[in-house]
UniProtKB/TrEMBL annotation:
The gene is der. This is GTPase Der. GTPase that plays an essential role in the late steps of ribosome biogenesis. GTP 1 binds at residues 9-16, 56-60, 119-122. Associates with the 50S ribosomal subunit. Residues 3-163 form the EngA-type G domain. Belongs to the TRAFAC class TrmE-Era-EngA-EngB-Septin-like GTPase superfamily. EngA (Der) GTPase family. It comes from the Bacteria. The chain holds residues 1 to 163 of 479 of the full protein.
Amino acid sequence: MSFTLAIVGRPNVGKSTLFNRLVGRRLALVDDQPGVTRDLREGAAKLADLRFTVVDTAGLEDAYDDSLQGRMRRLTERAVAMADATLFVIDARAGVTANDEVFADILRKSGRPVLLAANKAEGNAGQSGLLDAFSLGLGEPLALSAEHGEGMADLAQVLRPLI
Ligand code: GDP
Ligand code: MG
């Protein structure tokens, strides 16, 4: 059985961009507009010497109504249950939002391995968001830029002992 990593986080933080980078094919849709990707997508990931299954969670993008938090909870719980570890992504440029706190709460309570990543951290724009991320209580955040491929060696380093 392949090690499975689920990528979770609120819409627009760059989950699908990271998924595509790990899978190397455009299996997950990426769009500037919330509302494009759906539900869960699986792909075969390659990262340095590591090979594993990666799951992109979507299906939240069309849920900006009063059911958003319920959908977030259900989808995240499904992803966490099927995964050996979860990568929780926030937007380093936006900092920690109220919805990020909801995810963090779900993930802390899951009792499963969680890695925290602050994406869009290329350049200096993500510095304060990266520091903010410590407040989520999920350990040290990785600084990533899924779009520019930065932080991938650090991601491999934290994943390697889990796989
Ligand atoms: P998702 O909703 O979490 O799956 O996010 P997407 O992968 O669809 O990305 C949402 C937007 O963020 C798109 O416009 C991406 O091009 C952009 N994005 C993703 N990763 C990065 C990054 O590392 N840096 C910057 N600046 N933008 C990014
Ligand atoms: Mg997506």
